[in-house]
Amino acid sequence: MFRYFIRRLLTSIPTLLAISIVIFGVLAIAPGNPLGEFASNPAITAEVRENLRRSLGLDQPIYIRYFKWASAFIQGNMGYSFTSRSPVNQLILQRLPATLWVIGAAYLLSVAIAFPLGVISALKRHTIFDRIATTFAFIGYSLPTFFTGLLFIIIFSVKLRWLPFIYNSTLEVTDWESFIAQIKQSLMPICVLGLFQAAVLMRFVRTSILEELNQGYVQTAHAKGLRSWRVINIHILRNALIPVVTLVALDIPTVFTGSLVTEHVFRVPGIGALLLDSIYRSDTPVVMAISFIYAILVVIFNLIADLLYGLLDPRVRYGN
Amino acid sequence: MGIREKLSLVPTSTQAEATQGRSWSEAWRRFRRDRTAVLGAIILLTIILAVLLGPLVYTTPANQIDFSQAVAPPSWEHPFGANDLGQDQLARILSGGRISLAVGVMAMATATTVGVVIGAMAGFYGGLLDGGLMRLTDLFLSLPQLPLALLVIYLFGNQARAIAGPELGIFFLVVMVIGGLNWMSVARLVRAGFLTMKERNFVAAAKALGARPRRLIWFHILPNVIGPVIVAATLAVGYAIITESTLSFLGLGFPPDVPTWGRMLYDAQNYLETAPHMALFPGLMIFLTVLSINYVGDGLRDAFDPKIR
Asked: Which residues pair with A87 in a beta bridge?
């Protein structure tokens, strides 16, 4: 197990290297120039522009820039933002709490909805409950989050006036009242993201339980005279949840990139919003750092999914 | 990567028999019995027909600016209301829908072609080629899809516009980016199908009769693994439509005078208080289209693979 872990860890290094080269390459060969806005500004002469280029390290060949970037990144230095001149990691750390709060709450909400619904609707297959639950899941999964977000704003902020329109980033939770305000302003982004995830997860939980229901061991357990709740809890759920847990782990990075849209709709000052702003401003160091952080998340959660699979399922044996 | 493809990867056995003529008609019979899938197919066909023929019947121009009608709510004159420039929303939805659907279909075609070629080569030839191609697939699966798509379109948008014109250039760029980031599930399905099929007797027989690799791949093996690919391709259309709308919604993608459904939502964001209809109708169109595509895809999956219900 430990050896497998180490080996998997080592094989993910080339993947990360390849991804970073892809992202860096895209940024480097792009015709768009981070100094584009200075080029159209008549107050800045060609000489000043050249000095700026040199001070940002843009006059060096691509591979040198890549090595410099990579070695700095490993040491935790992600460079400086072109536009605000502050260190990138500081910018990201400022934005991270909002993203983590929204994503974490959304994921908990989705698991809390999807697990019971998926289990019940698989066990009560073809009943009205199942019909309604699967239909809702299907609808939720076909509704793009940017549309649900706008709908929520129209319904809950514009028409009903229950919830604030825009996320107030300066709000600090100090007392009960500000806590309520914080909940109120994060409710819509959390629900939009959480309901979408719940729809996806619920379908998956249902399928994976259905697959177990017809297995021989379930019939054996029933034939032994075990009560059905015991069969469900001890036998079916344990087996059916293995792929589900793996999927949850695999899906967390998708939620991070998916939150990009939600953060944009509700103006949540998270890292997704930071990435979008930085793309518009051609702020290459920030874009590079955030995209690469997303890639690291994907690789790490893939690793976690693999390890969880082995831990949960004794049939999976890691060879040497 | 969308969760869609993970779901479509879950239970997909390949058609076991080489007698595909019979299994096709059987699949069609099963599909017809699936009421929600048929309903989805009807809605989808209606949307396609409306988008293709609608502008011939509904002749209000899509780009005529009329400030006296700005943000007008739905009325007889403007059934879906008007936008902030007083342009008719129904006409814009119809003409924008052509682009949204075209992007969906073309991106699907790109993804499927790439996926089939890579999967077939990996599965058929095996060995070093297989290893390399599968590493490539894994790499693409680990890329942060949405950020990368945003980045590429933002950075290369101007160049694409310069090469092929503002509309066509962006169209090709969007199709390439969406298709190029979404072929992996098809490649894996095709590879898995090839691995099981190439051991079958009928392939050995064809080989013994002197069939060349190309013929084996295209005429003998591929038709037998195509079922799950069709399902994945159907779902890929919906995925591509959502991705294109997302890109346009974030303000990257088509220029303002090309009213794709996502772009219309982008414009609507600032008028949610005064003109919610601006967001409602384009959003509903995206939703209806994707929902019906998903129902059709689900019906196809059940039709090709009746074990799972």
From this structure: A80
How many Cβ atoms sit within 10 Å of the Cβ of residue A234? 12
Give the least confident one: A278-282, B98-102, B272-276: B272-276
A166 touches chain B (CB under 8 A): no
Helices B35-57 and B20-33: angle between axes, nearest 10 degrees: 80
CATH superfamily label, B14-57+82-304: MetI-like (1.10.3720.10)
Q: Pick from B2, B148, B265: which is nearest to A150 by CB?
A: B265
Q: Tell whether A300 lies on the interface with B, counting CB pairs under 8 A.
A: no
Domain CATH number, residue A209 = 1.10.3720.10
The model's pTM: 0.83
A64 touches chain B (CB under 8 A): no
B87-123 pLDDT tens trace:
777 878 888 888 889 999 999 999 999 999 999 888 8
Distance of alpha carbon B91 from alpha carbon B71, whole angstroms: 15
Check CB contact under 8 Å for B279 and A150: yes
Strand partners, B271: none
Residues in A touching B44 (Cβ below 8 Å): none
Give contacts of A15 with chain B, Cβ < 8 Å.
Answer: 138-139, 142
The nearest alpha carbon in chain A to B248 belongs to A146
Q: What is the residue range of A146's domain?
A: 91-268
